[in-house]
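User: Quick sanity check before I run a bigger batch. Here is a single chain. Can you write out its predicted 3D structure?
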Amino acid sequence: MSQFPVVPTGEHVSRQVLSDHPELMVVAFRFENSGAIGALHDHPHVQSTYVKSGRFRFTLGDREQEFGPGDSFVIPSNQTHGCVCLEPGTLIDSFTPRRDDFL
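Assistant: Done. Predicted structure follows.
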């Protein structure tokens, strides 16, 4: 069990840091409803996303792609990205270096 709190990040979306180190952070994002949105954003961290459950349509730069359970992909530093939840589920994101703004 994580020592970090569950933090709401939007309507029907929350995040929880699972583990962290200055060079790496692992975070669970939980989407409770279809239609929940992970807003478009970018950051200097390299991000790896693993779809633990659910189905999501991601915007990655200028393209869109759907991902489901077991899928994984990497988002380069400073690439605009976001998602729409198609089926409720959980994303496991890893960031390097860690997202100090999440602490």
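The chain has a mean pLDDT of 97.

User: Great, the batch can go ahead then.
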